[in-house]
Structure formats: structure tokens, C-alpha cells
Amino acid sequence: MSTISCFTEWDKLEAIIVGVPDYNCQPDHEPGVKAKIFSAASAKDFPVGLRPPGAYVAAQRELDNLIRVLTFYGVKVEHPEVLDWNQGISTPWWTAPVMHGASCPRDIITVIGKDIIESGMSSRCRFFEYAAYRGLIGRCLELDPASRWTAAPKPVLWDKAYRSDYPWKEDSEKRSSMIERKEFVTTEEDVIFEAADIMKFGRDLFVRHGFTTNLKGIDWLRRHLSWPNADAGVDAPFRVHAIDFPNDLCPLHMDATFFPIKAPDNERKGVIYNSPARRLRESLKPIFRDSFDILDAPQAQWTDSPPRSMCSPWLSMNMLHIDPSTIIVESTEKNTIKHLESLGMKVVQCPFRSCYEMGGSFHCHTSDLHRQGMQVDYFKHLTTTQVTRESSA
Ligand code: ABU
Q: Which residues line ligand 1 (CB under 6 A)?
């Protein structure tokens, strides 16, 4: 690894962080975590603390295979530090009996241009997760003197940062009308964004407003990224758009909901997969119309998630591009594999379902450090600074 730079989700991958499963814990049912659980009755399926020992062995086996595949394609692989997350933490305003882990770098670290941005996380169990990345970020800065590191404001995560009486998922009617009104489990009392809510499309960044990213978080990103920096390969200010998916009862992270598959070229529009269960708000579709077709993602192969996984079956969409026409897909997701092949993509199949309980699939378990490519403008119909601030129905 000698360069830090990323502008898209699909350009040729050169270096990446792959997470580590060690000491990953099932977190306490604090407000941000409880919002992922279906009902009070099903909370017992998520016992707080370390997982059964076999879970770590199975996840590591799949991660080792992923690392072999990435290395075969010439990708340099880096890791966060292994730390003991099975410890209680406290701040002046709250305590948490255990932390989460460093399995999902995508949620906390994102490289935009040459800026390594560290998010402020939305749940208390993830407050100190940055510690696992500080050594790695230091190495990146040494290797690429033109790169820089920004730690976003750390949210306080006090009680007022959450709607404490947020309805369980099973109370779908109540939840659904709150989500339609954009009343998420996180309030606007903190600056909160998780990096997995950001999708990079060259000059345009789409950021999902939901449980794990609030409007203050999106505003921080917009202000931070709104100046050109030629030294960092950034010719024009990024356009940061707030988007949302009103049918999603658990609106967290973009990468199992809305995922770019193919970039546009001179002849054809690009392709984005959108989960048919979580469609993009209608009023936002015109932004994409000239450059991308938004297709329903193929039906996920599974209706349930593996035991102890709080993620949805739409992890079928949580894929990883090796280059614009090569993509890593979970090997049981036959519908997705077939559809991607019909689009002319080369699919690399890897088993990964044992990793799901650690927080997600390939996209979640990684974070790109270097992809080739520059700051391309895929949305030429937008004016220099035209951004979507907040969608309306
Ligand atoms: N971290 C991605 C998980 C999103 C989902 O459960 O759909």
C-alpha cells in the first residue's frame, strides 16, 4: 500500500481494510441496538456478551478465504488491531457492559479522496471502536504523505440523543409512520453518521438519513467536503446528498439497500440495485435518471438471517467490487449471482454467512483504502453545488 485514495465503490481496488472477528460481542440492548430487534420476546435471541467460541472460528475461516481471494487479485489487505471488546465502558452520561468489536471497518472508516474519515458512531457499544484503527491510520499517513486524517466530532450519545420509547419493529404500523416522518431512533442532539451510510459516486456522495446517520451528521460531511483540494486529487467540491428509504423499518446503513453495480459509460447508463422492500423515496429518483438505472435487487435467497445476526436477508446486496466488472458475492445467493452475470459482471463467489452475526457481509467487513480512479462527475445535470438537503415526499 503506498497510496490512499477513493472516489467510488467500484473502481479497481488496490488496498483495503478487512475486519477482525476477535472478541466481537453481542451488545447490550441500548436504544440504538434495541431498534434492530424485532420484539421484546425476540431480545432473548441476542444474549449480551461474547459469542459461542465456534462462531469466531467459523467467521475467521471465511475471512481467511476472502483475504486469499483479495490477495489473488493483487489487493493489499490491512487489518484493525485485535482488542478485547468484552469490557464494560462508561462516560459521565452512560455505561455499557460490553463493546461491539472491530469486525466492520465500513461502519467507522471511509476514505473520501485522500481523506481518511473516522465516523462518530450511533451506538454506545461502538463509542471506542476507533481505538482499533489508530495504528493503521498512522501507518497510512506515513505511507502517503498527501493523505490526511479527520476524526469527525464524537457524539456524546447521552439519553437525549435517542428517542427512548422507540417502538419495537413488531409494532410496524407505529414505526412505519414515524419512519415516513423521518423520526428515527437517533435525534438531532448530536452529530452522528456511520460511514456505511455513505455511497461514493465520484463527485457525488449519497448519504442515508436514518437510525445511524442524522441530519447533523450529513451537514457535517457536507461542510467538511465542500471545498476543492487539488493536492488531494479533489478538483471540485463534493456534492453531499441526503437520501432515505421510507419503507425500511430498520433504516441503518446503505449497503444492504442501495448499491451501485455498474458505472455509466459512453454508451450505457450505470446500474444500481435497490432492495424492492426498501425503495428509494420517489421524489429522489430524478437525481439518478440521466446516469443510472435503478433496478430491483434480485430476491435474497434467504428469508431469515443466521442465528445471532441482527442484519436483514438483504445482506445479499452487501457485495464488494474488485474492479468495475468483477464483484464478490456470497456463494449461496444464486439469484443475485445469476442476475449479475446477465449484466456481464464476473462474479467471485465466497461463503460468508458465518460472518453475518459479526455485523454484515463483504461490504460491511471491509473498508477501501485505495481504489484507482479520479473524481468523476457522473451527474452532469446537477449544478456545481446542487445538493439534496432533505427529501420531501
Ligand atoms: N450493516 C448492514 C446491515 C443492513 C441490514 O441489516 O439490512
A: 196, 252-253, 255-256, 311-312, 314, 360, 364
Rounded (5°) CA angle 172-363-121: 65
Does residue 231 contact residue 115 with C-beta atoms inside 8 Å? no
Q: All domains of the chain, ordered by start, with CATH?
A: 13-391 (3.75.10.10)
Q: Which residue has the cell 488491531?
A: 81
Contact (Cβ atoms closer than 8 angstroms) between residue 192 and residue 214: yes
State the cell numbers at 356. Answer: 453475518
Q: State the distance from the centre of ligand 1 to the C-alpha of 80, rounded, in angstroms.
A: 21
Distance CA 222, CA 227 (A): 9
* Intra-chain end-to-end CA distance of the chain, in Å: 44
101 sits in the region (left: phi over 0; alpha: psi -120 to 50; else beta) called left
**pLDDT tens digits for range 240-294:** 999 999 999 999 999 999 999 999 998 999 999 999 999 999 999 999 999 999 9
Of all protein residues, whose CA lies closest to atom 6 belonging to ligand 1?
311
Cα radius of gyration (the chain): 19
Tell me, in angstroms, the distance from the centre of ligand 1 to residue 256's CA.
5
* Ligand 1 center–CA 235 separation, angstroms: 33
The torsion angles phi and psi of 295, rounded to 5 degrees, stand at -105, 150
**Interatomic CA distance for residues 182 and 175, integer angstroms:** 10
Residues 6+ apart with CB under 8 A from 126: 27, 99, 100, 107, 108
* Ligand 1 centre distance from Cα of residue 69 (Å): 23
The C-alpha atoms of residue 78 and residue 18 are separated, in whole angstroms, by 6
Alpha carbon distances (Å) from 88 to 43, 48, 142, 158, 304: 20, 12, 33, 17, 31
Q: Which cell goes with 258? A: 442501495
Vertex 107 angle, CA 203 and 101, to 5°: 160
pLDDT for 35-67, tens place per residue? 999 999 999 999 999 999 999 999 999 999 999
Nearest CA to ligand 1 atom 7: 312
Q: pTM for this structure?
A: 0.97
The answer to whether the CB of 117 falls within 8 A of the CB of 196 is no
